[in-house]
C-alpha cells in the first residue's frame, strides 16, 4: 500500500489552509497524529481500474411512472463519475427524503445521512498531484436507489474476483463428497419463506426483523443439512470438517410482497430439488417453504449479479414506508454470506465469511479519476469542513478552484 503523505506538498498546504474551517469527523479514523491543517485520513485500498461490475454509472433508472426520471448508462468513462456527474434524478432525492422522514425517530443517524446523500460535500486530495476535489457524500443505505445500485455492483465485482480464483483452484480439487465422484458446477438456489400473515402486517418493523432473523439463522442450518455443506470426517481424526470442494454465496432479499428469501449461488454436484426443499423446511421449521433450483450454465457473472443485485425491490414513489421498514429490519445484519471453499479466497474482501457494501463503494472513489492529472482511484481523505456554499461557488462538485473556498 502506498504510504505517501500529502502534507509534503507546499502548494497543497497553501490551498488547504483556506479550506480548513473546523475538524470533520472522518469516515475512517486517521492513522497517526495530526500535524498540519491537512492530513490523509486513510489511504484507500489499492483497487484495479474500473470494470463492468464496478462502474458507478451503470443503469440508474427511475420508476416506470416517472417520465424522464433517472438516466441510463453503462459507460466505463472514468470522467463521468460521482465526482463530475453527481446529480441524482428528482424522484431519487424525493424518495430518500421521504424514507428519512419515516426513519427520523427510530434511526436518526441513518435518516440524516439519507438527507445529505448526494448533496453534502466531502473534500479529497489526489494521491498523485495533490489536487483537491469535492465529492458528494453518500449514505450507503440499503434502499437508496443510487447507493444500493453502486454497492451491489461493487460487491458483485469482489465476488467475481473471488470466484475466478476459486474456479481455478477447485478444478484441481479432488472429490470430497459422499459416494462416487460427480461433476460440480454453479447453480442458483432460491430459498423462500412462507408468509402466513396478511401483507399489511408483514410490513411492521418488528415482524419483518423477526422474519429476517429467523430466515438468516435457518440458512446455516440448511447448508449443513445438504450434501454440499454436510461435515465429513478427516481420515482417522475424531473431529469433523467442512467439505473442501463446494462453495456458496447467499444474498438476502425482501420481495415487494414482504417475503424474505435467499438467493444462493452454489458450486457443487447435482442434488434433487425435493431433497433441498425438505432440508429447507426442516431448517426453517415450517412447511410450504419452497425451493427453486436453476442452472446458471456458463454465465456465472450473470448469476452473481442476479443474486446480489438489491436488498429489496420494494422501492418506488409510493413505497417510502416499506423501504424504512427494510432499513430497520436489516440494521446490523450481514446481507451477503459466504460458505465453503470460497471463504478461504478473500482477494479485496474485508471478511472471509461475509461481503458487504462499504461507504467507499457508495462514494465511487475507486473509479473516479483526478481531473488535474488523470490518476484513477487514488484519493486521500482530508480533515476539512466544506459546506454547500463552497460547492455552489466552485460551480459544482469536482476539482476545487483556488479562491472558491468558504471560510
Please describe what this structure looks like.
By secondary structure, the protein is α+β, with helices and mostly antiparallel strands. The protein folds into 2 domains: about 15-140 and about 360-400, no CATH class; about 180-230 and about 240-355. It is about 30% helix and about 15% strand. The chain has helices spanning about 10-20, 90-105, 110-115, 145-170, 200, 205-225, 275-285, 300-310, 320-330, 360-365, 390-395; strands at about 40-45, 60, 70, 120-125, 130-135, 185-190, 230-235, 240, 245-255, 260-270, 290-295, 335-340, 380, 400. It has a 5-stranded antiparallel beta sheet. The chain has a 5-stranded antiparallel beta sheet with strand order 11-6-10-9-12, with helices on both faces. About 40% of the residues are buried.
Essential attributes:
15% strand; 5-stranded antiparallel beta sheet; 407 residues; single chain; globular; disordered N terminus; 14 strands; 31% helix; alpha+beta
Give a brief rundown of this model.
The protein is an alpha+beta fold and 407 residues long.
Strand and helix layout:
Blueprint: H1 10-19, E1 40-43, E2 60-61, E3 70-71, H2 90-103, H3 108-116, E4 121-126, E5 132-136, H4 145-170, E6 185-191, H5 199-202, H6 205-225, E7 232-233, E8 240-241, E9 247-254, E10 260-268, H7 273-284, E11 291-295, H8 300-308, H9 320-329, E12 336-340, H10 359-363, E13 379-382, H11 388-393, E14 398-399
Antiparallel strand pairs: 1-13, 2-3, 4-5, 4-13, 5-14, 6-10, 6-11, 7-8, 9-10, 9-12
Helix pairs in contact: 2-3, 2-9, 4-8, 6-7, 6-9
Amino acid at each position: 500500500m502506498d504510504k505517501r503523505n500529502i502534507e509534503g506538498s507546499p502548494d497543497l498546504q497553501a490551498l488547504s489552509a483556506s479550506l480548513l474551517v473546523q475538524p470533520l469527523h472522518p469516515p475512517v479514523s486517521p492513522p497517526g497524529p495530526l500535524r498540519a491543517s491537512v492530513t490523509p485520513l486513510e489511504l484507500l485500498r489499492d483497487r484495479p481500474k474500473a470494470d463492468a461490475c464496478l462502474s458507478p454509472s451503470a443503469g440508474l433508472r427511475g420508476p416506470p411512472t416517472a417520465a424522464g426520471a433517472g438516466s441510463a448508462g453503462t459507460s466505463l468513462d472514468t470522467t463521468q463519475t460521482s465526482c463530475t456527474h453527481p446529480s441524482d434524478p428528482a424522484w431519487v432525492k424525493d424518495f430518500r427524503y421521504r424514507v428519512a422522514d419515516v426513519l427520523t425517530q427510530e434511526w436518526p443517524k441513518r435518516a440524516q445521512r439519507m438527507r445529505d446523500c448526494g448533496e453534502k460535500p466531502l473534500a479529497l486530495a489526489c494521491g498523485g498531484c495533490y489536487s483537491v476535489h469535492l465529492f458528494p457524500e453518500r449514505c450507503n443505505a440499503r434502499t437508496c436507489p443510487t447507493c444500493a445500485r453502486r454497492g451491489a455492483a461493487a460487491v458483485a465485482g469482489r465476488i467475481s474476483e473471488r470466484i475466478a480464483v476459486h474456479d481455478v483452484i477447485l478444478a484441481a480439487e479432488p472429490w470430497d463428497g459422499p459416494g462416487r465422484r460427480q461433476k460440480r458446477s454453479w447453480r442458483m438456489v432460491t430459498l423462500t419463506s412462507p408468509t402466513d400473515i396478511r401483507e399489511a402486517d408483514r410490513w411492521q418493523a418488528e415482524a419483518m426483523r423477526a422474519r429476517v432473523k429467523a430466515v438468516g439463522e435457518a440458512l446455516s442450518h440448511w447448508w449443513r443439512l445438504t450434501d454440499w455443506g454436510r461435515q465429513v470426517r478427516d481420515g482417522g481424526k475424531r473431529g469433523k470438517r467442512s467439505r473442501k470442494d463446494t462453495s456458496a454465496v447467499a444474498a438476502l432479499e425482501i420481495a415487494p410482497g414482504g417475503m424474505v428469501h435467499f438467493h444462493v449461488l452454489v458450486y457443487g454436484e447435482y442434488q434433487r430439488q425435493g431433497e433441498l426443499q425438505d432440508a429447507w423446511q426442516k431448517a426453517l421449521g415450517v412447511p410450504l417453504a419452497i425451493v427453486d433450483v436453476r442452472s446458471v450454465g456458463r454465465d456465472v457473472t450473470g448469476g452473481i449479479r442476479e443474486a446480489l443485485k438489491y436488498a429489496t425491490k420494494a422501492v418506488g414513489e409510493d413505497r417510502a414506508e416499506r423501504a424504512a421498514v427494510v432499513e430497520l429490519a436489516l440494521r446490523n445484519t450481514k446481507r451477503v454470506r459466504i460458505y465453503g471453499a470460497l471463504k478461504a479466497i478473500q482477494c479485496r474482501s474485508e471478511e472471509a465469511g461475509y461481503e458487504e457494501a462499504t461507504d467507499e463503494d457508495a462514494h465511487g472513489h475507486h473509479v473516479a479519476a483526478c481531473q488535474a492529472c488523470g490518476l484513477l482511484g487514488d484519493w486521500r481523505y482530508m480533515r476539512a469542513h466544506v459546506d454547500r456554499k463552497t460547492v455552489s461557488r466552485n460551480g459544482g462538485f469536482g476539482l476545487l478552484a483556488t479562491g472558491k473556498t468558504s471560510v
